């Protein structure tokens, strides 16, 4: 009985701490960590491979927000804006590389630096005649407001958290919500 409970606890804890876990009555499916998948599927375009080996394109999804309508992911809006201003042409890619490659984001760089680089880039794309006739102010605003600064020098690996730490935090959360009688 104790071994069975331990195995189930390890399985649940493992599924929360890994990118994939076994699902189904007999573990017949390998499934992605749902919390990570939900978060990342809002942000990233990717190629997904299923067990049959078939590759599928995964675009950022548009989650429904009930009576508030829907939300177009920032990443998708940024990519559409990049296309409209000509960044995906060979000359546009060269301009992005030249301008954004001139500054490496490490410690003190911030969104103000990004705004300056975006302005330089848009000026160059316009001068080279790369901006499409269908581009508008909303596309430009999207680039200024939603295009993230480079984050390749930042650490984003999963933080290991033990089951005991999660349970202690759960206990603190519970008592903060209902009022601690102690």
The total count of strands amounts to 4
Strand order of the largest sheet: 1-2
Quote the beta fraction. 5-15%
Share of helical residues: 40-55%
- Report the order of strands and helices: HEEHEEHHHHH
The class by helix and strand makeup works out as mainly alpha
| Major sheet summary line | 2 strands, antiparallel
Distance between the termini: 34 Å
Query: Uncertain spans, ≥5 residues at pLDDT below 50?
Result: 8-15
Oligomer category = single chain
Chain-averaged pLDDT: 81
Radius of gyration based on Cα positions: 23 Å
Number of helices: 7
Form type: extended
Describe it for me?
By secondary structure, the protein is mainly alpha-helical. The chain is 50% helix and 9% strand. It contains seven helices and four strands. The strands form two sheets. It has a two-stranded antiparallel sheet. A two-stranded antiparallel sheet has the order 3-4. A hairpin with a 5-residue loop joins strand 1 and strand 2 (29-32).
Name the descriptors.
7 helices, mainly alpha, 182 residues, extended, single chain
Q: What is the topology?
A:
Elements: H1 2-17, E1 20-23, E2 29-32, H2 34-43, E3 46-49, E4 55-58, H3 74-84, H4 90-100, H5 111-127, H6 137-146, H7 163-178
Helix pairs in contact: 3-6, 4-5
In short:
The protein has 182 residues and is mainly alpha-helical.
